[in-house]
Structure formats: structure tokens, C-alpha cells
TrEMBL record:
Its main location: membrane. The chain crosses the membrane at residues 20-39, 51-73, 80-100, 106-127, 148-164, 170-188, 265-289, 310-331, 387-408. Gene3D superfamilies: MFS general substrate transporter like domains. It is a multi-pass membrane protein. This is DHA3 family tetracycline resistance protein-like MFS transporter. Keywords: Membrane, Transmembrane, Transmembrane helix. One of its GO terms (molecular function) is transmembrane transporter activity. Pfam families: MFS_1 (PF07690). Residues 1-412 form the Major facilitator superfamily (MFS) profile domain.
Amino acid sequence: MLTLLRRPLREADAIPTFYALTAVAAFSFAACFTLNLVFQYRVVGLDPFQMVLVGTVLELTCFLFEVPTGVVADLWSRRVSVIIGFVLIGAGFAFEGIVATFTAAIVGNIVWGIGYTFTSGALQAWITDEVGEEQVAPVFTRETQIDLAFTIVGTLAAGALGLISLRVPIVVAGTTLILLGVVLWVVMPERHFEPTPRGERETYAHLKQQFVAGLTVARSRRVVRVFLLVSVLAGLASEVFDRLWQVRVLDSFDMPAVFGGDEAVAFTVFALVGTMVSLAASLASGRWLPRHVIDAHPGLPIAIAAGAQVLAVAGLALVGSLWLALAFVWLRGAAMAFSGPIEAAWLARNLDSSTRATVLSMNSQAGAIGQVVGGPPLGALATRTSIPVALLVAAVMQAPSVVAFWRIRRLGAPAERVAGSPTT
């Protein structure tokens, strides 16, 4: 089977192929996810615990399969890995949309989660191999622009298709991704693939080495310790917000008359506004924030952004107005977009080249662990009490992150390179 996928039937150029698959994938993901939670709540009938559990299963699947699926990309082919990945993602989407049961949601998310791990890393590695490390930077820049443009197109398509039925955009997205996999089988080139040497492959032994190396760095760098702690705290709190904010809105408020009371149209507009607000916040952090603040006191804007996230989670739980609730949802997205580039730069400056990739990966896994551990209990709490109660608990759980960042706000560079800075 893998041998059949190794060579295209009609080879195309790598860069146009990469741009085309980026556009189709961005469209499909936006078409699926814009109304996916509304679909799960209204059509499938999931309760808050079940909705959070679906998300937790997805996170756990990605965590467990990242290494074994990476073997395909390392040993056989980046192309093969990408094709399998998109077909599985599409199959998972379509299965959930067509069957529309709790079991189908679980199975569908497992399938598409496995598919995502096939594409994770393999897609970027493929285009880098084909284009070359020196020429790939502008390709990734263009990819980001295409991704944003077609995310907006996919969001609009979700609203239009959702007027037919809430399951339609999910099934269309899944079918589109399966067709994308077929087209890639026909045209996707792979001229420069070389199997990864055994010593450089991702294995569970390698992950253990990463973990040990990350702990060593964390013990010596206060900033790294704080980032790992905050990633766990954010993960503990984020799953319940991400999976239940739409349910909170649906349960508590009527859709505005301007949308004709239609939930598909309303949530499409809400998603578009949120995307634009987050984009503006991301641009603002780079253009308007003084450079000396980012370099010398990076923890200050990040602590403020973390406080805004906590405020947004608590605010969503407490307000009695639809537009205030949405304002808090958009505030959280904007705060994350605003602080994201600053956090990335700050953490990178506190890591040595030899351990940078290791600790960045470890930081991502800390967030995933937090989501897996925190999601089900908070989901169960939301079902047994109410969503606002679960959101308030989530806000309390994330609140220490504000204090943690505030206490290290002046550690702009590694402690050993900042005179008088503590290391512990």
C-alpha cells in the first residue's frame, strides 16, 4: 500500500501544490469547526461533559500517536504521510457528521486526530526538502497569508451550508479533505526525500531524552520553569472554555434579530469577528508595543494578557448579556494572539540552541497534559452543576499564571546573562 503511494501519477511543481493544499485544508478546517460545537450540542445532543470528553479524547489521541505516525514520514515518505493524514482527517470529519451520535463523535475525533499526527511535521518537512532550507522562508510566509484568506472563505461557507443543516458543512469539509488526499496522490511530487538517519528519528526513547533534557534546562532557568507551569495551568482551564463557550451562549441568550434568529448565521459572524479581532491584536503586539518593553520587561505585557484571559473566562460565566459574553470570548482570543509572539520570543531567548526544540516541544506537551487532566473533571462539573460554575473554577485554576508571569516580568534574558537576576 505504501509503495503505491510513493510516486505520483502526474507530478506537479511542489510550491503550487503546497499553496493549493494549504488553501483547501484551511477552507475545510474552517468549514468544519465554525459550527462543529453547535452541531454536537444541537444535533448530536451531547451534554457538557460529553462535549469536553470528545475534545479530551482528541488531545490524548494526538499525544499518543505523534511518534508512531512520525515513523512513516521519517522512514518511508513525507508524501505518503501527508496523503494518509488528509484522508484520515476527512474520514473522521465525514463520519462524525453523517452518523451524528456520541460514539461517532468519539470515533471520528480519534480518526481525524490520528490523521492530524500524520500531517504534523511531515508537511513542513516535505516542502522544506523540495524547496531547500534557504528558499523556504518566503514560502511559509505566503502559506500564512493563504491560510488566513481561505479560513475566512471556509467560515463563510460554513454559515451558508449550515442554513441547510448543521451537519452539512462538516460532511462537506470531510469529503473535500478526502478528495484532497486523492488529488495529492496523483500530483504531489517528492524528489528530494532522504530517510532520516536512525539516530535522528523520533522514538519514545528520544522523547525520554527530550524530557530529561527539558527538566535539566527548567531547573536552571526560572523563566522556563514558569512557562512549563503556566502551560499546564492554561491547559487545565482551556478545554472547558474552548468546548463550552458556544453552549453557554446557546443556553443563555437568544440570537439577535439581525440574524433572523438563525444560529448558523450568528455563529459564523461571531467567528469572523473573533478572527479579525485576534488578527488585529497579533499585529498590534509587534507594531505598537515598544521594543524595550519586549526585550527588558517581556513579562509585563504577558502578565496583563494572562489577566485578560482570566477575566474573560470569569466574565463569560457571570454576564447576562449576549454582546458582553461575546466581548469576553473575543477578549480571550485577542489576549492570546497579542501575547503569543512575545511569549515565543521570550522563551526562545532563554533557551540554548542545543535544547531549544526539545524544550519548546516539552512546553507544548505540558499544555496537552493539562487539557487531558483538567478537561473531564470540569466537564463533569459543568454537567452536574452548570457551565458558569465550571468556567469560574477554570478561571481560578488559571489565575496563578498572572502572578507567575508578573514575578518574572524583568527577566528578559537568561538569568546568567542578566546582572543581579536570580536563577531560582
